[in-house]
Design a protein that fits this description.
404 residues; mainly alpha; 2 domains; 80% helix; globular; transmembrane helix; transmembrane
């Protein structure tokens, strides 16, 4: 993996931006656990989960743009980007009122969360251009700016005592205001976008895969909101802070690897799996050794007694971290229906939660761990078969093996 800035500096910069983004994302529920009632904390966690799921359109757009540019160079993407934002906004207009009724969410807070999501989706186009061009220093700056807009306003609102609705109002404003900054960062004077434009179908495929990844990884939080009392669902929300930590801690690996995966480099895939897997093992071991402390840091002293469940939450995130690498590799290789296995796992998990699993915190948590293990097994089989065919077709005079 090479880039104009050098992979070492690029890795440090993107890692720093990722740490900032994750830190701000974690501060939101941590502050909420200390400053909001259990009911508002559960509502905040549910809204964050919902907007993360809706916001995967941004990640899908970013991945599609990055893969296209890595393969074909600078290409027009405005039409696909506008279409993605419009479709997301339309879907939110339909889904949010239903969420207010079904999940018992406050209406104004839900609307503001939707506005913030639209801004995040629009940002995906410019992040994808920088990632596909392997301009990782501007990309790192863009990720940091977006994190500040997406979460910084909410953090500021909570810290100032604005409450749930006030914090989300500030967050919606900052999420929109950062978009011109991202546009400036992505500009490359003198570079003209040529070649075939990005197809909307590519965005749909990448977005569908990203949506499936987020739905399956957030399904336990939504199920906890549905089946557990408010106090227990609030405690479960604290546990998912550990899940998301293990899931997103190694995300820099996928960010740096994606352009090379789009070019068919299987060695990059193997290295990415090793690094993400090692990160997950380390974080799960740390959660097992200091579960009480982990819950105390995530939610305060009232939640320290749940420390025995910390490795379950961390292991779930670690498994999904590896799954996400495999799914991104399939998207980069233009594999058909890369999201299908994850939708299958989600359906199995929801059915099990409805019919079989105990409606308790450990019942939902262990069910989520089982779902993550199933998703990893299915994804590994599919990618293994694809790589096996690629190796069979490998020619000795080539330096990389295509996994298309």
């Amino acid at each position: 993996m090479t880039s104009r800035e050098g992979i070492g500096v690029a890795g440090i910069a993107v890692t720093a931006a990722g740490v900032l983004a994750n830190l701000l994302a974690y501060v939101v529920p941590v502050l909420g656990a200390r400053l909001l009632t259990s009911a508002d904390l559960s509502a905040l966690a549910t809204l964050l989960a919902m907007t993360a799921i809706a916001g995967v359109a941004s990640t899908g757009l970013q991945i599609a743009v990055a893969v296209h540019r890595a393969r074909y160079g600078p290409s027009p993407a405005t039409r696909s980007a506008v279409l993605t934002v419009a479709v997301t906004a339309g879907a939110l207009l339909v889904a949010l009122p239903l969420a207010v009724l079904v999940l018992r969410l406050p209406a104004m807070a839900t609307v503001l969360a939707g506005v913030s999501t639209v801004g995040v989706v629009a940002a995906g186009r410019w992040l994808g251009e920088m990632q596909g061009d392997q301009r990782f220093l501007p990309l790192a700056a863009g990720l940091a700016v977006l994190a500040g807009g997406r979460y910084g306003g909410v953090v500021a609102g909570l810290a100032l005592g604005a409450g749930l609705t006030g914090a989300l109002l500030i967050g919606a404003a900052t999420a929109i205001l950062v978009l011109p900054v991202l546009h400036v960062l992505a500009r490359r004077p003198g570079v003209v976008a040529g070649g075939s434009p990005l197809a909307a179908r590519s965005v749909l495929t990448a977005g569908g895969a990203t949506l499936a990844m987020l739905v399956v990884s957030y399904a336990d939080l939504l199920l906890a909101r549905r089946f557990l009392p408010f106090d227990a669902s609030g405690a479960y929300a604290v546990g998912t802070v550990l899940t998301k930590g293990a899931l997103w801690a190694p995300q820099v690996v996928t960010v740096l690897a994606l352009p090379r995966l789009a070019q068919g480099n299987t060695r990059t895939l193997r290295l990415a799996l090793i690094l993400v897997g090692a990160s997950g093992l380390a974080l799960t071991a740390a959660a097992a050794a200091g579960g009480g402390l982990a819950f105390r840091l995530a939610g305060g002293p009232d939640y320290a007694g749940l420390g025995r469940y910390a490795p379950v939450f961390a292991a779930t995130g670690a498994l999904y971290g590896v799954v996400f690498v495999l799914i991104n590799a399939q998207v980069a290789a233009h594999a058909p229906w890369p999201s299908a296995p994850l939708w299958m796992v989600t359906a199995v998990f929801v059915a099990a939660a409805w019919l079989v699993l105990p409606h308790t915190l450990p019942g939902i948590a262990f069910g989520a761990l089982g779902a993550a293990a199933l998703a990893l097994a299915v994804s590994a089989v599919l990618v293994g078969r694809r790589m096996g065919r690629a190796v069979h077709e490998h020619r000795p005079d080539r330096g990389t093996v295509s996994i298309e």
